[in-house]
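Collaborator request, handled under Task 6.
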Amino acid sequence: MKNLFKLLLVLFFVQFTFANGGVVIADIENGTYLRLVNSQIDVTVQNQISTVITSQIFINDLGGSQEIQYAFPVPGNASVTQLRWRVDGGEWQVAVFIEEDPSGGGGDGDGVTPNANLVSYLGATPVYFAFIEEIAENSEIEVELSYVELLPYSFDEVTFEYPSDYSAIQSDVIVFAQNLNFNLFSERTIDDVELFNNVGTMTNDGNVATVLISENEAISINDILIKYQLASDELGVIPFSTLLEEGVNECDDFGNGFFGLVVEPESNANTEVIEKNFVLIIDSSGSMRGGNKMAQAKEASEFIVNNLNIGDNFNVIDFDNNIVLFQPELVEYNIQNSNAALDFIENIVALGATNISESLVTAINQFEAGAEDKANIIVFFTDGGATEGETNTQNILQLAEDTVNQIETEIFLFTFGIGEDVTTDLLTLLAVQNNGFVTFLGDNEIVDIISNFYLTIRNPVLLNPVITVDPVGAINNVYPDPLPNLYKGQQLVFTGRYEVPQDISLTLTGTAFNQQVEYNYDFNLSDQNNEGYAFLPKLWAKTKMESLLIDYYSFPEGSSEAEAILEIIEETSICYQVLSPFTSLGDGGTLSDGEFMDDKNNSLKFFPNPFTSKTKAFVYLDQAAKILIQIYSIEGKLVKTISINGVYGRNIIEWNGEDNGNKLIESGIYIYTINIGGKETHFGKLIKK
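Structure tokens returned to the collaborator:
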């Protein structure tokens, strides 16, 4: 049962990263694929939203007819809007994805183990589809996939990536064409467009840009990477909303509407940024000697010092069981002080215990004499728990709170936990209770993550932002909560849900230069299902889980509070099919991003779903066969078995929400499997209200 339940979870996140779009698999164990002969990729980007229509033609020259399967590496934040295929130029057939484990068992147990070369391509959440009919020898199949995505953005730069390098799957020539048509439309001025890894032609008139790649009778092109720069002197405000059709979203009852808002301040050289009182706290306890943690910590610290701004005040604190300050109090950032701080950091030696409490009190007290119009920022990183001074988590938190209250100021505390021995609830609560956030990283990630993090918070523009909506309650379940500060070159992504389409007024307030500022916007919550915004449900679920993760880590591991939050995260992750730290499996297991097949011969859709007292589904058979339905809890426990002697034609499956002991089950997510004639044919999720 353990392996079976692992398979069921595995089926939600099939992770293939296949080049040139997708791959058609004939033999997953031995790595046999249909030969790719043509690839056409059409991309339209409208104000940072990309719509990709990718079509590949494959030929069956393997000798004899083949059972085939298809996989495609959809980006983690993207949503598929359509998959269709046709054989030998015939009529298109449209699919709604069937979730199927390509290994036959998650890569372990009695299942088939995928070919090692195929496994090497495992990556982020692609779709997976198993064709019902075999493909005849020498026949061609064209598969077309469409998906939408909000492209990643940082410091005026938007990035589009597409995995077009097919060489690991097919080393010989792709006999026809490999074409990319990339069309970019932006209300914000496009300053520059760059194509990496491949040769192509580009145009840009400031609001419309194109990139074209065309190769004929050639080996696979390289992965496509396109970056474009937007004007830094224009405020970016992009609203999105879509209203899903009734019954499409069965995950919750927050309404069928999804709303998103991307806000970014001007980021040019003339943009005023809030100066900082900045304190960097470096753990130099004996455990930091492990691996190259101390060397990385020094490198990251030196990067931060080198990238402070003129006008900032700063200090550096080195702590083990003792507290050593670079200077007794905050000093002005200039070349002389910067060089002296770099020498101080270089001479830090890892030795001693971990006195977290005194290091924090010392750092907070640095702000007592600090300028009131500057942002008080602490960056604190450690690889362990408190072993010196105050060691109790609640007492350390209270000590930090009392110190902040004594100096009557506001701080922004960002904590970094290095390795596996940190006290997660302490670091999380220190950050959350002091207007910051926590990041947990591996021993070898210190330099990259902390350096990149600092660049994002280097230039604060709006502190303590708050969004209000009129009418009140028009948008519910908003995330992130609370909103992070707004920084130059970074976007604030705000998401929420709605039930009633209507016009709304949205107000963004916050503090800048010790003054309250306010921005007002008018938007319409759409009454239409906009496929171009199909990424919104995943974006909302992702931001919700990120907020819940902070809550989760604020409680001791295994506590009832943490377990309750964990259950919500898992349910959200599975139902919206967005990866989380608790539902991405790394033992060869993979999940698909699909929904269920929906044609008259293979449909299996329970309704209502979610259900309160009873739900049912129809199964169509072309001959009599035994139908076995097994229903499992989210923990993998078998709760109900239903056996039916299936007949030709329509068969009804009904479940009244009782377990095998005739007791009503609790509310939650359940997984079902359908076995027809000894063969697993369907599976999916049921939600009991």
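The cover message to the collaborator said: "Confidence is low (pLDDT under 50) at residues 1-19, 97-111, 584-603. The domain at 276-458 is CATH 3.40.50.410 (Rossmann fold). Please let us know whether this matches your experimental observations."
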